[in-house]
Amino acid sequence: MEAGEVTGMYPMLSVEEALGRVLSAISPLPEERIPILEALGRVTSRDVKAAYDIPPHANSAMDGYAVRAADTCDATPERPVRLRVIGEVAAGYVPEVQVVPGTAVRIMTGAPIPAGADAVVRFEWTRKEGEHILVERAVPPGQDVRPAGEDVRAGELVIPAGTRLRPQELGMLASLGHGEVWVHRRPRVGILATGDELVGIGEPLAPGKIRNANSYSNYAQVLRYGGEPVLLGVARDREDDIAERLRAGLADGVDLLLVSGGVSVGDFDVVKRVLAAEGKIEFWRVRMKPGKPLAFGFLGMEGQQVPVIGMPGNPVSAMVSFEIFARPAILALQGARDLEPLSVIATFADAVPRKDGRRHYLRVQLEERDGELFAHLTGDQGSGILSSMVKADGLAIIPEDWDHVEPGAQVRVILLRP
Questions:
Q1: What structural domains does the chain harbor?
Q2: What's the pTM?
Q3: Which of 87, 182, 270, 318 can bridge 97 by disulfide, Cβ–Cβ 3.0-4.6 Å?
């Protein structure tokens, strides 16, 4: 098949069109119940609602005295109100007395408010006088009282399904009495690098050869976004070798296949034939740089097809393509609802004199000056310059309809660092 026939069969898609096709083929994986101590970064498959109020009872926000606010209404430093202390209560204990007119109960932070009291006078607003206190400041009802349900009300939706769990959600689950949580299974992601030129880390670097970097960067990216990476090795530029390794991934139960290399015009036929023989191909070209040759299709039998994302072989192209397409696919497999990458607006500090009609993703370092964020190019933006990613804080998005970029332009930057 000639290159012209290939490009005619698979028109170049916008990033949004291509991503839409990828995500339309993704469904959340089955759920499982796991201990909350193992749930960091996992995505909830069911809503979590509160079975009771948090806090379950009104409690003190400060150390002081539980009082009737009405008893303090005339209190001043010059004319303090004298109240008899009839007991005390600490956090974790139930008050044994009731506050009546003219009395107070010594109370510690977090302790339940005794019956009859509706306010707390802080220690520093009182003076001790035997069995009494002299209150030097009037307090309104509710002063330093945390009402029952101030944090969460019984029946309230606290953590919706589709939430990626952070430390704060795990703390809330514990507060609600949940030692386990329902989450979607983590996707197993097969990673295959292709190319006759690739050698492993421990192999001799013979003339014409380069190290296989993509398997390792993609492995780390899969881990970062919650997947379980499955290395499928390096396939040579032969249809049978690629097919054999991809079949091995299917046999191993992977939920998504990532292939780097073998998708440009010159060697497209190898990947195309494999996809055609084992499944189907959906698209091949995307209007972006780096990453224009990006294949998406399926492998496997009807009803058991596994999505395949074929990324370029150049290391920057592979990593950028992963961030734009594989990252949201992996999150969607986990049932996540928010698939947008974290991004900021920054002032572009450099000049790009010429640009084609594709969306460009430029590697930039971010610098804050006088409250303004500036984006500086990391140097040479070639798709084989992996050091441009090492130095990068993010990817500056340059829209398709910009034919150049001048210093001072406002750009959106996808963050690559936490």
A1: 3-29+185-333 (3.40.980.10), 33-51+161-184 (3.90.105.10), 59-146 (2.170.190.11), 343-415 (2.40.340.10)
A2: 0.88
A3: 87
